[in-house]
Amino acid sequence: MIRCLFHLPGYRRIVPSHIARVVFGFLALARDGVVDLSFSDAGDEALPPCSWLAEIGGRRVCCDTADANLNTPAEIDALLEKNFDFIFKRSFDPAIARNVKHSDRYLPLGLFCRFFPPHYSIAAVAGCQRTAVSRRFARAVRILLGRDGVRSLVPYTADADRYWSAGSAPDPDVDILFSTRLWGDRKMNPNGGYQALPLGHGACFTDAPDWKERTEERVALLRAFRERFKSRKTVCGVSDSPLARELCPDLVLPHRVTARTNYRRLVRRSKVCVTTTGLWGSTGGKFTEFVSAGKAIVSSPLNHAVPGEFAEGKNYLAFADKEELFDRCEHLLADPEEARLMGLRNAWYYRHYARPDMAVLNMIRIVLE
Questions:
Q1: 153 and 170 share a domain?
Q2: CA 30 to CA 28: how far, in whole Å?
Q3: Over 80: is that where the pLDDT of 103 sits?
């Protein structure tokens, strides 16, 4: 059995969303007896911001989950020479990787989403005394969550992996789903214009330079989209937030539409799902939700690479402006067979590369080989 140690310093009650997919991938492999898993509170000063350390078979692996590329090729090489055996990067830029001397050890981490293992309740496992789940796995969950962790984790369990991977409804009745958010922890400057608020702690969460551009892009696209497809059955708009009410009250969707349970149903009921680029040019979690649900996707061009065979034209159609967005949507609606095949390719990719346990198993294979 492969020995794995995962470091989660400072987090005893909740798993940070950016690393949840990896953590619960390890937990699922521990449940299935693939790895001998333990957790550590110890930190590591060498880690870049928004990164976590995993020790796999004695090898030190850095999981860099930052939206942005915060290190130069020279800095990446220094980390690989002095501190880590491998670095797996979420927002993996091939142009940067080409200039990394140790590029064989600098690899894509893959798509981001708040993932949890399928087919069981985290709360039930964490509190179980006798269950089909192994005692070792139950103990690992309890250690990870801490004394009061179950209660803190409850809001996240609604995003359980099994809901996203449920696939399409038998007869999808929504032509296009284009629902997004405007980063609700931002607000308008009282003196006019935008005021960007910090997203959290650490350099990776400081104000994104493309925040205003992304916000205005989404609002403009949504308004144009509503006008173009007003004769179609669509769900188009933004989640409610102070910023959304200030910038685009006409686009704010009611909570009953954007609430997670209802939103999952909307994804399943939709023929085509639309998403745009995230902060720092990253690929957002919504894109991964559509992939895991096996949907036909229209998206802004992806700036970052992922493991495996995943390509524009096969797994998604890219658009550069509103006219291309309209054309791509119309094309998929006019060709249900192409949309169906795209959805099947995405469902296959999810099961082999993006599902938490498979994503971590692929990482382990690369590290040990």
A1: no
A2: 5
A3: yes
